[in-house]
Amino acid sequence: MADMICETSPSLIEGKTGFNINQIPDVKAWIESIFVAAGKDVPDFEYTPQSISHLHNLAIRLQANTQAALIVANDLHQKAAEYSSQAARIREVLENVGLALDTLPPNVVSVSQVLAKVANLLDVRDTELSSFLIAIGDINLRKTKVETKRTRIQRESKILLDHTRKAIARLTYFKRILQQLEDHVSHSEARMEKWKTNLAVMDAKQQQYLQQHANFKELLNRVGYTPEISHRVLVEMAEQRAELEKKTTPIVDTLRSYQDLPPDKALAVLAIEDKKCEYAAAEKYLEDVLQSALGTT
User: Fold this and answer.
1) Looking at residue 9, what is its pLDDT?
2) Overall average pLDDT of the 255-273 stretch
3) Per-residue confidence (pLDDT) for residue 16, from 0 to 100
4) What pLDDT is recorded for position 82?
5) Can you state the angle between helices 106-122 and 129-223, rounded to 10 degrees?
6) CA 137 to chain centre
7) Which bin fits 285, alpha (ψ -120 to 50), beta or left (φ > 0)?
8) Distance CA 218, CA 227 (A)
């Protein structure tokens, strides 16, 4: 066997790897015992700090398991010996009373074997009636627990099934509502596109009307419009103008009739002055009417 370990200080190896250098002889001895017990030669391999630590831990665990197995085996051997001695004593007693196994009828032997199998099945140590009754009572108790648990599980399963059915019904309802919403969304999107188009048109119209309003306002400012000139005032002024036209129309007709007369300078001057006075009076009357109309507003 090639015993090769890294040539370093033992204290340095212990500090770096965390294993005890004194574990090497124990590991070697354990490996030799294992291979010797198996009838094989110990192979050559390299001992490293990692392998030594791993093999030492493995040896400790295997030795502990071996000791535990030996304890269990010794206990089983002892119980087997006790059972064998008890069986020999019972066989001797049966032979003394004439109930040896060879002398018993076949049906009795089969019944005894069945009884032994039932005892093993019920996990009882003997075939006493009390042991069977206790085992049967234990089975009945476990049966009652199982039936109670099964009843509870069935009740819970029924509740879960009811919840599942309700959940499926709600899922179907939600799917139908979702489909309706999707259809409504597609229809609403078309309506929204139409409204967006109408809104764009209305916005353009608004800009146009605002521009027209600004133009009209500028025009009114240019012509001298004031808020005092209302529609009622304009109607009254139109009515006054119509009345003045009615009054002045005969005068104009008279003046036109004078144009057909032969020229007479004195009469013409006199007539012109007369008409000028009438025209001035009409203009003054119109101005007074306008002033009075503006004053009332």
Assistant:
1) 40
2) 68
3) 44
4) 86
5) 40
6) 53
7) alpha
8) 14
